[in-house]
Amino acid sequence: MKYPEPESSFLEFKREIPKNDQVIKTIIGFCNRYGGKIIIGVDDDRTIVGISDDAIEGLMESLDRTIYEATAPPILPLVYTRTMGDKTVLYIEVSKGMNKPYYRCSEGLENGVYIRLGRHTLRANADLSEELKWQSRGITFDALPVYQANIETDLDKKKIQDFFQKRKGRPKVKITQELLEAYEIHVREHGKVYPTTAGILLFGTNPQQFFSEGMVICTHYTGIDGREALATKDCTGTLFEQYQEVTAFILSRLYRSFSIKGFKRQEILEVPEIALREALLNMLVHRNYHIKSPSKISIYDNRIEFFSPGDFPGPLDAHNLLEGMSFLRNPAVCRAFREAHLIEKLGTGLIALFNSYVQMDLPRPQIIEGTSFVKCVLPRNTPETIRLQPKKNLSDALKSVYDLFGVVDEITVSRVMEALDLPRSTAGRRLATLVQGKLIIKKGSGRAARYMRAPPVAYQ
Fold first, then answer.
1. Sequence-ordered list of residues with C-beta below 8 angstroms from that of 208, at least 6 positions apart, any chain
2. pLDDT at site 224
3. Rounded to whole angstroms, how far apart are CA atoms 269 and 257?
4. Nearest to residue 141, comparing CAs of 346, 316, 288, 310?
């Protein structure tokens, strides 16, 4: 019998009670995040092996006290048993802690804080421990003051004014100190007013002066392994400016196909534009700006990778991303993007991303949670990625014909004869070879036949 759910950020299996204190670390990790369960008597492959009645009796008597004495602030988990089939398993259930950070007493606050990231329990560094303190007080990093900044010189008043004037569906308002504090662009502390993290990131004159890694590095590589870069760009400035710069860079590096419907020519991007937009918005809005590392976008022949510092915001993991839940790491940043109409409806972005790939009949994107990073991988869909790069598999004679489709949408045998100075039989034979290789398609027959570049086929 198999347990119905896989391991995740909120669930860990143990075949038997560990001999070391890993269970204590896992409990602390759950408590410092969003709670979770340890199930003893389930193997790593989800097979329910159960534990003996004698073992259960001993654990029920000792676990509560052991966990209480080993943790600070003390953690009091819920320990209970459950029968599954003819087996009995033991649950250790931990709630989300309200007094973070929790730590292991024997290691102290400096070294004993653990957090749950994906299916792993890891020791928290100083930055993460600090973030846990903010969470326990209901504070978000984007609302914290930037003490070194000055509201007169480090915030661009014109950018702020343009934002409030151009909000769609909102009345124009007078920009007052109260309004800026309500939008968490300013914060007042001990009688002095400071720009917030959100204020600097959204409307700063030079955001990288205070958040040097708060930028996106875009790189286009040859091949699929990232050994040689074709182009790279550091996208800096405010988050709105980064959104525009990154979008322009990505679109300039991707392939577009063309089709004629009626009298109109339509362009079709190899990757759904809605998927690009949602992946980029998630990177900018939900990344952890407290981590001193830039966001990165890497374009390969067969995929585009969006690398964002930090873990998933809130109790999200790779298993529940498409359930429409929304948790905000940077609510002030999110509000600004929403009122700028870059975000339409919270909780629907990733659903739209995946649906757009289904509609174009493309391979499924991947969302990967690593140690202090989240990566979104969008498969590319371009003729150049068929069998890695199809033109590398073509003879020079066939390449010369295929290259003609880079300047025209449709081609005829006569056009090939004229462009390459070929007899009709040779031109027809080369076109037929490309059709057979599924790089182009043929419409019509005889001298009226026309040839078009085949719709993109995704790299496998």
1. 214, 215, 236, 237
2. 82
3. 7
4. 288
